[in-house]
Amino acid sequence: MKKSSVFNFMIRRKEEDNNTGGTLVGFARIFEIEWSNATGQIMLGIGDAHSRGKGYGSEALRLLLDYAFTEINFHRLGARIPEYNEIALHTFEKAGFTVEARSREALNRYGRHWDLILLGLLRPEWEKTR
Amino acid sequence: METMNKNLFHGELVRLTLEDADRVAAAFSRWGQDMEYARLLDSGPVRLFSSSIMRQWIEKEYLGDNPGMVNFFIRTLADDRLIGFIGLGGIHWNHGDAFVGIGIGEREYWGKGYGTDAMRVLLRFAFEELNLHRVSLTVFEYNPRAIRSYEKAGFAVEGRVREFVHRGGRRWDMICMGILRREWEQMQRVSAVTQQEAA
């Protein structure tokens, strides 16, 4: 019955001469937080197409996970990624996430059905990646 | 078409209803105080809600004007007893996907097929009337009775969200299940053939 907390961030590219005011390239958020279970969902996007494929998403994800596990003390973080988003799947799996479930044909796009893939990362697993 | 004449909201043991919050709030509040029911139902920390807070929530949220939800109550056919609720939420109309949630608040109706019957009625509504492509649900690993009921209704396990719930001093997985339209249709065909053979 209560609204849940959300942590919203923007992602800016660091400029070489200056730490502030870098180009805005995307967003990241932690949402659907259940405090008593110490779980949350993660989402991030590099909105500017020119900025993709440069490792910004991977680094933003790493920073977000550091913050989530060391500052907010989550036990697990989840993500939901459509099966057609191979780059995101690769980025999250590289960061330590495991595929936990497939919601079969949960999405209908581009004239066909796709699975929605559920991934999860537990705190002990994340600690091993550091 | 024969099914046009059937009452879409009647099963064999239960019927789905819609009624004023006033008529159901006291029961909802009482069910919420059954700790076992509360912990089987929801991953959030169990909380006590007064009858009037319940009534407001039922009126504004559960029965509210939200296109992403279709909610019902469950009454027994035999003696019209209010035993629980069932509904669809998180409906993504563009994808044809929705989540189902069910709770049988009156414990003496646990394990007797009432929940499964309500689920069958709800699925028929979801696939025949709302024309959804799939229905999803989540259930905690410590609720084996519900898992069996969902399997009987046609849901398949699709994975486990590991260590999602932290309760009673340990962590539990949340199990994801889903049923696709063609799987439900196949079940209807199989049961129609079985009925013909029996006749």
The SSE string of chain B, one letter per element, is: EHHHEEEHEHEEH
CATH fold-level assignment of chain A: Aminopeptidase
Please identify the structural class of chain B as seen in this structure: alpha+beta
Note the beta-strand portion of chain A.
35-45%
Query: How confident overall, as mean pLDDT of chain A?
Result: 94
Provide the domain count of chain A. Answer: 1
CATH architecture of chain A: 3-Layer(aba) Sandwich
Radius of gyration of chain A, in angstroms, nearest whole number: 15 Å
Task: Specify the oligomeric state.
Answer: heterodimer
The number of domains of chain B is 1
In the CATH hierarchy, what is the superfamily of chain A? Gcn5-related N-acetyltransferase (GNAT)
Cα radius of gyration of chain B in angstroms: 17 Å
Poorly predicted runs of 5 or more residues of chain B = none
- Gross geometry of chain A: globular
So what's the CATH class of chain A?
Alpha Beta
Biggest beta sheet attributes of chain B? 7 strands, mixed
- Percent range of helical residues of chain B: 25-40%
Sketch the topology of chain A as an H/E string, one letter per element: EEEHEHEEH
